[in-house]
């Protein structure tokens, strides 16, 4: 009756951390962005213009925080959907696993790559 | 008794030597304010069907023998009263997710095996191995309070009948056994955590739980197995991270 050690803790810890990010940090960021956007709506000159956002992401601390929030939100959402499939009586297979955790990993890499490019002022 | 009310009670019957499959039998049972489901079954056995089989012993929610499905919900028959079903019909069936042995008697050997498997006893630390029997382990009231609730389990099997994960995967260790595992893990007299981690952290251990929480809802002793399993997940995840950085 031996059963393998589960690797679920990795996803569960990311899911838990993502829950905190989504519940606590993300609303604050969204509110800040909405306020900033309303204050000055100009696309080229407003507070959320391309260069302004580029400058925010050029700060290593802000960039790291935003990367953490984006990544954790992605893992949280994908883990939640993956496990909801089971609750909806859909038999999850290895394919589902690759699709959902693959999506989370893809978002993580995409965010890291884009932020790195912006940080190095290559884009 | 003249003032007694009558309730229609449908009971699942199964006599393996003569029935190909379980069937239902309905009885009109008189009851008063204090009649429990268990007493209703006594009445049926005494007045209608002497062959009706069901497990019982203490009649006071201590022994855990009389777990059964009442209107589809796992209950202890001795702790469930007909007055709470007034105006409704009642169906009594054997505990779900266990094989039926006879009438309302189910075979809970899988539950018993799992409880034995997780080593539900105090495993002393190496330094306590040779402690004389006359010397006692020290435990503060706070240390006892940490696990007291999880030690109230009477192994009635109601949580296994409620658990949708156990229903689809009989290898899942399940609520009662995982709760007991956690109860011994957090006991300050115990040093068996590392030995039990194999069961706690396995795919069929705490990670087999999707936190439906129905086990805690039906538990007649308010043990709250779902909470023990979630706390077990924290413990298992912590062990996992420690193992990642500290290989054996």
Descriptive keywords:
heterodimer; A: 123 residues; mainly alpha; 4 helices; B: Ubiquitin-like (UB roll); Fumarate Reductase Iron-sulfur Protein, Chain B, domain 2; two-stranded antiparallel sheet; 9 helices; 14% strand
Annotate the secondary structure layout.
The complex is a heterodimer of chains A (about 120) and B (about 250).
Chain A: H1 8-39, H2 50-58, H3 60-87, H4 94-119
Chain B: E1 5-13, E2 23-31, H1 37-47, E3 67-70, E4 73-76, E5 90-93, E6 100-102, E7 105-106, H2 109-117, H3 141-148, H4 158-162, H5 164-168, H6 175-185, H7 193-200, H8 214-218, H9 225-245
Parallel strand pairs in B: 1-5
Antiparallel strand pairs in B: 1-2, 3-4, 3-5, 6-7
Helix pairs in contact in B: 2-6, 6-7, 6-9
Description:
The complex is a heterodimer of chains A (123) and B (248). Chain A has one domain: Fumarate reductase/succinate dehydrogenase, transmembrane subunit (3 helical TM bundles of succinate and fumarate reductases, Up-down Bundle). Chain A is mainly alpha-helical. Chain A is elongated and about 60 Å long. Chain A has 4 helices and no strands. In chain A, helix 1 crosses helix 3. Chain B is elongated and about 65 Å long. In chain B, strand 3 and strand 4 form a beta hairpin. The longest helix of chain B is centred in the last third of the chain and has 21 residues. Chain B has 248 residues and is α+β, with helices and mostly antiparallel strands. The termini of chain B are far apart. Chains A and B meet through helix 1 and helix 3 of A and helix 9 of B.
What's this model, at a glance?
With 123 residues, chain A is mainly α. Helix content of chain A is 77%, strand content 0%.
Instruction: State the order of secondary-structure elements of chain A, H for helix, E for strand.
Output: HHHH
Overall average residue pLDDT of chain B: 95
Reported CATH architecture of the largest domain in chain B:
Orthogonal Bundle
Contiguous low-pLDDT stretches of chain A (5 residues minimum) are none
| Number of extended strands of chain B | 7
Largest sheet of chain A: none
Q: Please give the number of β-strands of chain A.
A: 0
């Amino acid at each position: 009756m031996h059963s393998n050690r589960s690797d679920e803790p990795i996803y569960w810890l990311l899911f838990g951390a993502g829950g905190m990010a989504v519940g606590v940090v993300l609303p604050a960021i969204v509110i800040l962005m909405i306020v900033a956007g309303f204050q000055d709506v100009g696309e080229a000159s407003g507070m959320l213009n391309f260069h302004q956002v580029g400058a925010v992401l050029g700060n290593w601390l802000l960039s790291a925080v935003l990367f953490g929030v984006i990544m954790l939100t992605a893992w949280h959402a994908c883990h939640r959907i993956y496990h909801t499939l089971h609750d909806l009586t859909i038999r999850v297979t290895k394919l589902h696993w690759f699709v959902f955790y693959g999506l989370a990993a893809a978002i993580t890499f995409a965010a890291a790559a884009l932020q790195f490019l912006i940080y190095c002022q290559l884009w | 008794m003249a003032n007694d009310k009558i309730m229609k009670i449908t009971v699942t019957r199964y006599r393996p030597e003569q029935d190909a499959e379980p069937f239902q039998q309905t009885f009109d049972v008189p009851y008063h304010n204090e009649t429990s489901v268990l007493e209703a079954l006594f009445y049926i056995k005494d007045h209608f069907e002497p062959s009706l089989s069901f497990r019982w012993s203490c009649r006071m929610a201590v022994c855990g023998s009389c777990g059964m499905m009442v209107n589809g919900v796992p209950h202890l028959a001795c702790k469930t009263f007909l007055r709470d079903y007034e105006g409704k019909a009642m169906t009594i069936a054997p505990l779900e997710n266990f094989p039926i042995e006879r009438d309302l008697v189910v075979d809970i050997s899988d539950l018993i095996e799992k409880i034995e498997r997780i080593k539900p006893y105090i495993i002393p630390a190496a330094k306590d191995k040779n402690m004389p029997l006359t010397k006692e382990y020290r435990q503060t009231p706070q240390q006892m309070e940490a696990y007291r609730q999880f030690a109230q389990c009477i192994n009635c099997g109601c949580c296994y009948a409620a658990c949708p994960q156990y229903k689809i995967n009989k290898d899942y260790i399940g609520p009662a056994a995982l709760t007991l595992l956690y109860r011994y893990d957090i006991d300050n007299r115990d040093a068996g955590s590392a030995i039990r981690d194999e069961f706690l952290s396995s795919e069929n251990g705490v990670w087999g739980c999707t936190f439906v929480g129905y086990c805690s809802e039906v538990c007649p002793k308010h043990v709250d197995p779902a909470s023990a399993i979630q706390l077990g997940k924290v413990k298992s995840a912590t062990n996992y991270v420690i193992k990642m950085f500290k290989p054996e």
